Amino acid sequence: MAKVTGFMEFHRQKGKRRPVEERVKDWKEYELPLPPEELNHQAARCMDCGVPFCMSGCPPGQHHPRLE
């Protein structure tokens, strides 16, 4: 469940990517998954604003440069 102050407590983490030399040899995912604990922290960043379709980007724009 999201925390009200989660976006202030947890910094945004970007997934690591496989090396290009490895990616050009197959059609597998290029982003490596985050560990389950880190996924929970990233889910806690959600502001639960009620705007649907936020998967394409956070509508309230909570990606504050200071926090990244």
Mean pLDDT: 77
Q: Tell me the major beta sheet.
A: none
Radius of gyration over alpha carbons? 14 Å
Q: What is the SS-derived class? A: mainly alpha
Quick one: how many beta strands?
0
User: How many helices does DSSP assign?
Assistant: 3
Which descriptor suits the 3D outline?
elongated
H/E series, N to C?
HHH
Extract low-pLDDT stretches.
64-68
General description of the model:
This protein is an all-alpha fold and 68 residues long. It contains 3 helices and no strands.
Give the SSE map.
Blueprint: H1 6-9, H2 20-23, H3 36-44
What is the compact description of this entry?
The chain is mostly helical. The chain is built from 3 helices and no strands. The two termini are 21 Å apart.
List keywords for this structure.
3 helices; disordered C terminus; elongated; 0% strand; mainly alpha; 68 residues
